[in-house]
Design brief:
Elements (H helix, E strand, L loop, with lengths): L5 E6 L13 H17 L5 H6 L3 E11 L8 E12 L2 E10 L2 E13 L37 E6 L14 H9 L3 H8 L3 E9 L8 E8 L4 E6 L5 E10 L3
Antiparallel strand pairs: 1-3, 2-5, 2-7, 3-4, 4-5, 6-8, 7-10, 8-9, 9-10
Helix pairs in contact: 1-3
Length: about 250
Amino acid sequence: MDDRVFSEKHRVNFYNADQNGNLLFSSYLNWCGEIAGAHLETRGITREIMLEDDQVFLLTKVGYKCYKPAKYGDIVTLKTWEHSIKGAHFYRCFALERDGELLCESISDWSLVAPKSRKILRPSEYKYEFLLIEQPTSAQINKIKIPELSATGEHIVTFSETDGNGHLNNSNYGNFLVDMAPAVVAEELSRGGVLQSADISFLREARMGEKISIHTDMTDNGYYMYGCFDDGRRCFEAAAELMVMG
């Protein structure tokens, strides 16, 4: 394996799985966020050092595809690599495997920003080497254009949902996609269904105590979801499709 590809083994623990024993999408997103940081740390690029340099990576988009769900008790390997830089966008890929079989994969879009001002920085301002490897992936960053939808629920960001960046941790949006999905989707999930694909755009940071109104509706192939602050600005947008398990 190319030494620019970094990997970690995980066990799908009881708390990582849903009531049917399938790996939670939020757990997958959590693992991806952690391994991205761990990969940088192997080259001495820690979060603390980046903060000293007045830089931090923020996740802006995720494109996800699942072929077969990881199950409770599985030992899986999560791989990641730095894929490409286009404009101000840093792309990183992930692949989850079990005994060499690809279970799911994703591609993520990151912005380099100044942590206090949130000003987007140019790739030329990144102080470290980006080890690009255009290893093939079927996951894509798809453009999401969601029309106005009716509000179907709301969520207030809690302390335990925030992270060291002071905002709602990105893995929680994976919970929104299943916990606040339309009723027909929730019913299929309870029967063992899992997300087959998901595209999430993280538009604005949500902080502790802020209320997010959730808007959802079914589409021909899946469903849409977005969250709004009280002032009407969208916090996130997502589109997802379900894999119905036999």
